[in-house]
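INFO batch 0412 | record 1 of 1 | parsing
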Amino acid sequence: MSDTKFSYMKKIKILFFPILALALFFGCTSYEPKVYGPVDFEIELEGPFFKDGVTDGITVVKFKPEDFGISRDEIFSMKVNEITLKCESDSGLGAFENLVFAVMTDDTDTKEVASTKVKGNPKELKIKGLQEAEIEGFKGIKEFYLEVTGITKADVEENIKLSGTIKMDIMIPEK
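INFO prediction complete | emitting tokens
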């Protein structure tokens, strides 16, 4: 029995150092952000909308990191830095109480990346991305989906057209 216990402990010691080295290697890798964007998008939310109702729309955004000097092979993850949003409809952004933005791909789950409470009836909003909303799995994609969900403040009969830009921080390993 002691021989079995000894060989088990020996195996643990032999495996411990390579596992520790791998953990230190991956744990100590630091990442630097590179800016991707701004990239234009448009979304149309189809009315009518009712007070305190929830509405959402989705659009496809092309993902071409090469256009911004970023190699796909280096991409570790990404975060939304800022979304600039404009409303072309008569009701304006003031039709919403709040807005929530999410990003997804065919290969990743939906991830909330930004949100804001709308005050007044601004013509344009700049919305900062959520710091904790890091998304992985962007190396091989050619496009992603941007979804906006809003809660309306009042009844609105028309469709609401939103346009804007999205700017992201692409995380790549420092060299």
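INFO post-check: The domain at 31-173 is CATH 2.60.120.260 (Jelly Rolls).
INFO record closed
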